[in-house]
Every structure is written in C-alpha cells, then in structure tokens.
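Human: If only I could read backbone structure tokens as easily as an amino acid sequence. Underneath my words sits a plain record pairing an amino acid chain with its backbone structure tokens. Take your time, and here it is.
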Amino acid sequence: METKDIKILLDKYWEGETNQSEEKQLHNYFSNTVVADDLKEYQVYFQSINQLSEQELPADFNDKVLAAIEPKAKPMRFLTFKNLMAAASVAAVLTVASIFYQPNNSGAALSQAEKQQAQQAYNETLLALQMISTKLDKGNQSISKIGVWHQVQQKIANN
C-alpha cells in the first residue's frame, strides 16, 4: 500500500471514521518491519494496540471493577431523614395537644374563639403532616426504583 493511502487512512482513523477493514489495513501495514520513515512514529502505537488486543482479562475482572464502582455500605445512622420527620411530627402533635389541654389560669373554660383557633391550628398541623407523609411516600417509591435498578445491574454483572 502506498504511503499516501496510509496517510489518508490515518487521518480518517484519528477522526474516528474508519471501518474495520480499513483499521485492519492500518494494523497490517504497521505490523510490517518496513514502514515509511515519516510514519515510524505511528508504528509503535499500532504495535502496542495489537499487543493489548491479544491479552486476556482475568476471570474476576468484572467483579473487581463492579466492586470498585459500587458504593461501600454505610453504617446505619439513627438520625435519618425519616426519624427526624417522625420526631418533628410528634413535636407538632404535642404542641397542639398542649394548646388544647393547657389549664386556664382563671379556671374558666376556653372561649368559643379560643376553641376555634385551636381547632384551626390542629387542622393546619394535620394538613402539614399529611403533606410530609405524601412526600415521604414519593421518596420511598423513588428508593424502591433504585433497588430494582440495582437488581438489574446485579443480573447483568452475573451474566
């Protein structure tokens, strides 16, 4: 093959536009001992590519790579988002309960306006807790999708 043709193929190769047969031509040309002087610098590259393609990966290569990629198991912590939200909910309920059951200093019963205000605070707290519960449920659904994705990844890795 002429040096001019090899240079054209090299340009295509570096642009990523060669097909397998053209790459094979390049590999064959550079595996010969006779290479044009201005192309000698590429000979080492193609020879090393040929040597690397002949090497076999160890049997446990995929396991090692996946072990390096997968996150390490984190120790369980008590202060998780779920536990903090539960503590905040309990605190909110206790606050509302203390408003209802707080003894009046004068000993008289709560006025109608105070009862309505306490009921309104209770209803707003209940709505806020329901919203938090909904958000937590959405988060749990997202986490379950991650678990499914992880299982699929394990099946792929085992094959």
